[in-house]
Amino acid sequence: MANFTDLTGLAGVASATAASAFLLLLGLLPGIARLTKPHLTLLLGAVFALMLIPFGGMPLAAYVRGVTGDLSITTLVLLWCALLRPWCGCVTVEAEHRLALLTLIALAALALYPMALGAGAYDPYRLGYGDPFFVAALLLLALAAWFLESVLIALCIALAVLAWAAGWYESNNLWDYLLDPFVSVYALAAATISGIRTMLKFQ
User: Fold this and answer.
1) Three-point CA angle 97, 165, 74, nearest 5°
2) CB 72 within 8 A of CB 181
3) Of 22 and 153, the one with more pLDDT
């Protein structure tokens, strides 16, 4: 019987697949956007369910998870914001601060991954094993983001810390709850594109 970590890991991969399929279909078939909410629900639900159907002894999501690993809490929050946007108007409120979150992710990734791979003498990945100052700094950042009405940043940090404290994933490193390579690459690309557009406006 699958444990809790496996179930949430598979659900995360299935969510990512559903969101990716939805965005891909929107790009290839613009008419998808004109579907009614019940039809969109059926479409996304079908993709989500398909990923959880056993194939060759394991769900399709398990094969993908074997390659990608568990997605970070930050990635899951962004995915579910994208999935719920057609149904929940409140989800679009975070659009004003979405770039701020992606910029923060990009900066964290640039600081974490090169040094964790040996680019410097210090390995910030070690902070994720329960360093009290690191946890306190994250919670203060979440509190500051909340007061600045950047709810998305506060939500991602708070949920990641709570999931880590509860031992949600197999990893016991807080960084794995905050970041993963996929959201890092996406954030770096989005922040770079935004920076280029800003520079072009001032030329």
Assistant:
1) 25
2) no
3) 153
3-state secondary structure (DSSP) of residue 86:
coil
Residue 54 forms beta bridges with which residues? 59
* Contacts of 44-47 spanning 24+ positions with Cβ under 8 A: 44/18, 44/83, 47/14, 47/17, 47/18, 47/21, 47/22
> Within the chain, how many helices (H) and strands (E) appear?
9, 2
Q: What is the pLDDT of residues 71-81, one digit of tens each?
A: 899 998 888 77
DSSP 100-118: HHHHHHHHHHHHHHHHHTT
pLDDT digits (tens, 9 = 90+) for 173-197: 999 999 988 899 989 998 888 888 8
